[in-house]
Design brief:
The complex is a heterodimer of chains A (about 110) and B (about 120). By secondary structure, chain A is mainly β. Helix content of chain A is about 0%, strand content about 55%. In chain A, strands 2, 4, 5, 9, 10 and 11 form a six-stranded mixed β-sheet that branches. In chain A, strands 1-3-8-7-6 form a five-stranded antiparallel β-sheet, with no helix packed on it. By secondary structure, chain B is an all-beta fold. In chain B, about 0% of the residues lie in helices and about 55% in strands. Chain B is built from no helices and eleven strands. Chain B has strands at about 5, 10-15, 20-25, 30-40, 40-50, 55, 65-70, 75-80, 90-95, 105, 110-115. In chain B, strands 2, 4, 5, 6, 9, 10 and 11 form a seven-stranded mixed β-sheet that branches. Classes of the chains: A mainly beta (about 110), B mainly beta (about 120). The interface of A and B includes residues 41, 45, 51, 99 and 100 of A.
């Protein structure tokens, strides 16, 4: 059973506009969340993370928002660039538990020039 | 640092054959993870090791799958016998679990396995 869900398999956005990728989780023990980006023929690379003690974390064009009550997080990319076209994976972990991550199925973002 | 190294990058084999995937983690990392990526389930954790010891292998799909980590710099994932449904991209990742507040894992480039 998927504990981390990304319900949108794909998203297309115009260059310069905002991209919003969504992620939901079911396990209330999760308290640390990460986003990974994956280009074709490469492994996923870490992008940004957030702890459950925060509701927002920003790094340049990338911002992650966490809504614990809704068990929902989102990744905002502003402005979107063609180089952002990739598959984005949401992942979750319980800091007090084992150090493995639970990944979603990914969302393919296409930024149209 | 060369990052996580996986070999081979591509493997095509026939059903029933044995397949061995290899991984060299980042030097100094003490946790190693094997994942399988499929369209339906995304990145599935198969097994992970901490200090060369298997901690959780509940994701290993069947007894046909086995993994070893004989030392801190090498791990293998073996499928015997292989079946067409094993076709997927297999990733190895490593992390340093000593950094308690960071769960970042570093992934290798993956091995694309095709079983005919």
């Amino acid at each position: 059973d998927q504990q981390v869900k990304q319900n949108s398999p794909s998203l297309s956005v115009q260059e310069g506009r905002i991209s919003i990728l969504n992620c939901d989780y079911t396990n209330s023990m999760f308290d640390y969340f990460l986003w990974y980006k994956k280009y074709p023929a490469e492994g996923p690379t870490f992008l940004i993370s957030i702890s459950s003690i925060k509701d927002k974390n920003e790094d340049g064009r990338f911002t992650v928002f966490l809504n614990k009550s809704a068990k929902h997080l989102s990744l905002h990319i502003v402005p979107s660039q063609p180089g952002d076209s990739a598959v984005y994976f949401c992942a979750a972990s319980a800091q007090t538990g084992a150090n493995n991550l639970f990944f979603g199925t990914g969302t393919r973002l296409t930024v149209i020039p | 640092d060369a990052g996580v190294i996986q070999s081979p990058r591509h493997e095509v084999t026939e059903m029933g054959q044995e397949v061995t995937l290899r991984c060299k983690p980042i030097s100094g990392h003490n946790s190693l993870f094997w994942y399988r990526q499929t369209m339906m389930r995304g990145l599935e954790l198969l097994i992970y090791f901490n200090n060369n010891v298997p901690i959780d292998d509940s994701g290993m799909p069947e007894d046909r799958f086995s993994a070893k980590m004989p030392n801190a710099s090498f791990s293998t994932l073996k499928i015997q016998p292989s079946e067409p449904r094993d076709s997927a991209v297999y990733f190895c990742a490593s992390s340093s679990s000593g950094r308690l507040l960071v769960h970042e894992q570093f992934f290798g480039p993956g091995t694309r396995l095709t079983v005919l």
